Amino acid sequence: MRLPTILLAAILLSGCSGWTYNGIRGQDLRHPTWSMAAGFATTFAVHTAGHLLAAHAMGYDCHISGTSEIIDGPMDAGDARVFAAAGYGAQLAVGYGMKLWGVDNDFTRGYNAGTMLEIVAYPVLGFMRSGGGNDLDYFAANGGDKDVLYGVASTLAVGLNVKRRE
């Protein structure tokens, strides 16, 4: 599963001449606007915030260690699955919220591209996280099917970047 993910990320970041992705042309990736870069970075913060908000909403204390969100104390399996999926859920909720309200600018294009890249490339990025945190493995370790979570989240993330012709 890692090789196709690496190839997809390479294709999306290559900036092939004449390609357009989510309204972003290849040359835009070589010289992104600050707004586009801010949107791209924001999706990673929203992912982390989703985990933290879910933990606190369920009554758990947690902290950040490196790039991982760590629960302080034991968590039951159902809550652990919610916690593991909350990062994706937050990213997708914000992205589809902006899409629903018709927000279409460099920030949202950067945000949606970043969301898709992080979610689709997560099996590759997940092993690089410090602190041993990997949402998909944590989801599976607590009784969830990580392939279903990954498939649904990836499909929704790609959908953020699809625009109907007018």
In a nutshell, what does this entry contain?
The protein is mainly α and 166 residues long. The protein has helices at 2-14, 26-30, 34-57, 77-100, 106-120, 122-125, 135-141, 146-160, and strands at 20-21, 24-25, 62-65, 68-71.
Structural notes for this entry:
The structure is a single chain. 64% of the residues lie in helices and 7% in strands. It has one domain (33-160). Helix 7 packs antiparallel against helix 8 (146-160). The chain is mainly alpha-helical and 166 residues long.
> Can you summarize the main beta sheet?
2 strands, antiparallel
- β-strand percent reads 5-15%
Helix content: 55-70%
**Number of domains as seen in the coordinates:** 1
Task: Jot down its keywords.
two-stranded antiparallel sheet; 166 residues; 7% strand; mainly alpha
Per-chain topology:
Elements: H1 2-14, E1 20-21, E2 24-25, H2 26-30, H3 34-57, E3 62-65, E4 68-71, H4 77-100, H5 106-120, H6 122-125, H7 135-141, H8 146-160
Antiparallel strand pairs: 1-2, 3-4
